[in-house]
Amino acid sequence: MSMHGRIGRAGGVKVKRALGVQALLEWAFRTEQAQLELPPPKDAIEEGYGFGLEYILLQRAALGCKVDGGQHKMGSYTHADAEVVAATVAGMPDSLGGIRMAISVAEMARAGITPDWMPGVVPRCVPVETKQNQYGERSATIVVGFERIRVQGPTARGTWKTIEILACPVTWRPHPEQIAAARRGYEDWWQALDWVRDGLVAGRMLRDVEVTAAMPKMRPWLTALHK
Predict the structure, then answer these.
(1) Based on the number of CB atoms within 10 Å of its own CB, is 36 exposed (0-12), middle (13-18) or buried (19 or more)?
(2) Which of 27, 44, 100, 115 could cysteine-pair with 186, CB 3.0–4.6 Å?
(3) What is the mean pLDDT of the chain?
(4) Does 128 lie in the same domain as 116?
(5) C-alpha triplet 174, 178, 182: angle, nearest 5°
(6) What is the count of structural domains for the chain?
(7) Does residue 101 fall inside a structural domain?
């Protein structure tokens, strides 16, 4: 649904729709289907192949021009504010992941998802390998050494026997580093959203939307620990 039908007027003054940055991104990329116009490579600019959408929008803003909507959706209108959001995301600085992060933010917004920070996952010590036999599933063992023991018994007293020393190799699944990496990825995404929100607020280029301070939880796993 286009945002035009969801904005009213009060006393002749346009009432802006208030959205948090995550909801705004999902509206721009999922509902309005805005496209991520990434800036061209530096060598392409030098060769005269044009400029990215973000550059054009910023130049128009500097001249006091209104931003007009694009035509990325086949046969339909893409809201101008959605174009501004897409252009802002496209300008993601290298310190926050650059183009790679911009694509990630856009695609997650388009799918309506957040990064998987592996909620509720706890590393468990498990056998590296298991084997199935007639008695069920058993942990696989390996020989780690040998030991000589004196055999006790009525028929073999005083003799020596060599026996194998067996051990069960274990590992952590999922490995703690996997969980840590997933949560670092979530934090990187959060920082990117925070940058987008600040940029949209500072740019003051949105006509029909007001970006609120609402943000996803910064470290939801810490909240989960205290429940």
Answers:
(1) buried
(2) 115
(3) 81
(4) no
(5) 125
(6) 2
(7) yes
Same domain, 133 and 200: no
DSSP β-bridge partners for residue 189: none
The residue type at 222 = L
Same domain, 136 and 81: no
Q: Are strands 17-19 and 209-211 parallel, antiparallel or unpaired?
A: parallel
125 bridge partner residues: 172
pLDDT for 109 beyond 80: yes
Let me know if residue 115 belongs to a domain. Answer: yes
Three-state DSSP class for residue 141: coil
Pair (178, 162) in one structural domain: no
HEC profile of 47-64: CCCCCCHHHHHHHHHHCC
**Distance (Å, rounded) from C-alpha 210 to C-alpha 43?**
36
Tell me what pLDDT residue 61 has. 52
Output DSSP code: residue 30. Answer: I
Distance (Å, whole) CA 52 – CA 86: 11
What's the pTM value of the predicted model, to 2 decimals?
A: 0.67
pLDDT in tens, 38-86: 766 665 444 444 444 555 455 545 544 444 444 445 557 899 999 999 9
| Spatial distance between the Cα atoms of 96 and 191, rounded to a whole number of angstroms | 7
Q: 139: helix, coil or strand? A: strand
Alpha-carbon span 123 to 139, nearest angstrom: 18
Which of 170, 168, 214, 193 lies closest to 97, judged by CA?
Answer: 193
